[in-house]
């Protein structure tokens, strides 16, 4: 079980170890390993010796080794069960890995030296691998902007319709993010488009919706129109909060805190007290103070389905990557770092696995995805000044007390 020259345990032994201190190693390795899937498979299965039954008159030591090997095989199967059930994408995106795994399981299933329980476990895993994955939404097709500008607007659609379809779109992207995209700060690298495509898509869509909200407010040339738009989007954000779509809440609140909207003092003076209180309550929840402490508490209390603010977790992962080394001073893999990364990714995956029961409404999604409705960012502040010219250098914005831009 240990290399003689170093007395360090082999990876395949530790990943399937019965020791209490090693029990979570396999799961954490799968969540946080930067190795290829095929290499991870080789490590996960290297402790299985696929033993045959010892001869009837074999010495006690031989029988003991057989029992130990059989137990190791079952632990290998347990690791594979976790991998297949929690990371099925690995097997459907890598034919070589899927083939290696199926060959291994068929060998286990047909081995006469193993227990019936092990044969049954291998057969169950084979059935999982042979079952075609459930049909998923085609993201590219779903997020194609309408070819003809939509006739819908924030006035023609209800706050509930907008909030539900915002949540529908957010969840489709969020649930498609693979665990590998969170490793090694992939979303910041030169090849980020290949390594973290869905994280980039989530970020891009977040910015698009925020700019849409800003645009829908600034396009109203009357004060009453702008007030109605702000109150409507405040209601949308509040419904998103009730749907546990905290990403959607941040999309709207980021727009309301944008300088182009925030500075509209005359407009904010006419916004109802109820809407201001709603905005203040949401700004408190999503505040970045103390590393999003209040938002984290809300996430831990709510039951899925839920869409967290992804930027919070990306900050956590960046902090871990930049603050800890990959190897210890002794040259060993820093498993403490892997465990911290695994904890963050596991929390994200827990939210990804429970879908919303919301039907797709094309006309509302067309409104949310229509690029023609968005005022270019470089034009937004100029338009804001045209609507309410600057009166004095120190003019306020009229947001509720405690609400601050960028919170």
From TrEMBL:
Keyword Lipid metabolism attributed: no
GO terms under biological process: Ras protein signal transduction
Ranges of residues in domain Ras-GEF: 158-390
Region Disordered, residue ranges: 44-66
The name this protein goes by in its record: SFRICE_026646
Keywords: Guanine-nucleotide releasing factor
Gene Ontology terms for molecular function: guanyl-nucleotide exchange factor activity
Pfam assignment, any one: RasGEF
GO cellular component, one term: plasma membrane
């Amino acid at each position: 079980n240990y290399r003689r020259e170093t007395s360090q345990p082999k990876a395949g032994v530790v990943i399937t170890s019965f020791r209490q201190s090693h029990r979570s190693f396999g799961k954490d390795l799968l969540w946080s390993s930067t190795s290829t899937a095929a290499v991870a498979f080789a490590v996960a299965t290297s402790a299985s010796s696929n033993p045959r039954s010892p001869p009837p008159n074999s010495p006690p030591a031989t029988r003991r080794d057989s029992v130990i090997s059989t137990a190791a095989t079952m632990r290998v199967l347990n690791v594979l069960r976790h991998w297949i059930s929690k990371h099925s994408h690995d097997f459907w995106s890598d034919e070589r890995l899927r083939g290696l795994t199926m060959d291994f399981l068929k060998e286990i299933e047909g081995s006469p030296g193993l227990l019936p329980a092990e044969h049954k476990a291998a057969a169950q895993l084979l059935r999982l691998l042979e079952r075609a994955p459930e049909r998923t939404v085609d993201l590219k097709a779903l997020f194609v902007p309408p070819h003809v500008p939509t006739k819908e607007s924030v006035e023609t659609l209800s706050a509930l319709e907008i909030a539900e379809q915002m949540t529908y779109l957010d969840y489709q992207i969020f649930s498609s993010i693979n665990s590998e995209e969170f490793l090694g700060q992939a979303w910041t690298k030169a090849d980020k488009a290949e390594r973290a495509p869905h994280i980039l898509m989530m970020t891009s869509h977040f910015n698009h919706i925020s700019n849409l909200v800003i645009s829908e407010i600034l396009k109203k040339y009357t004060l009453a129109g702008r007030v109605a738009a702000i109150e409507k989007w405040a209601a949308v954000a509040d419904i998103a909060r009730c749907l546990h779509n905290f990403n959607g809440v941040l999309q709207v609140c980021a727009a309301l805190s944008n300088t182009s909207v925030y500075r509209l003092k005359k407009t904010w003076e006419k916004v109802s007290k109820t809407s201001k209180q709603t905005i203040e309550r949401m700004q408190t929840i999503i505040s970045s103070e103390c590393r999003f402490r209040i938002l984290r508490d809300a996430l831990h209390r709510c039951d899925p389905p839920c869409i967290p603010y992804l930027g919070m977790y990306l900050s956590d992962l960046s902090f871990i990557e930049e603050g800890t080394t990959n190897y210890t001073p002794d040259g060993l893999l820093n498993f403490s770092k892997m465990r911290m990364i695994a904890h963050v990714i596991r929390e994200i995956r827990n939210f990804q696995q429970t879908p919303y029961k919301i039907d797709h409404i094309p006309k509302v999604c067309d409104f949310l995805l229509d690029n023609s409705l968005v005022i270019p960012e470089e034009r937004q502040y100029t338009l804001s000044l045209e609507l309410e010219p600057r009166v004095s250098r120190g003019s306020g914005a009229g947001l509720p007390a405690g609400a601050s831009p960028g919170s």
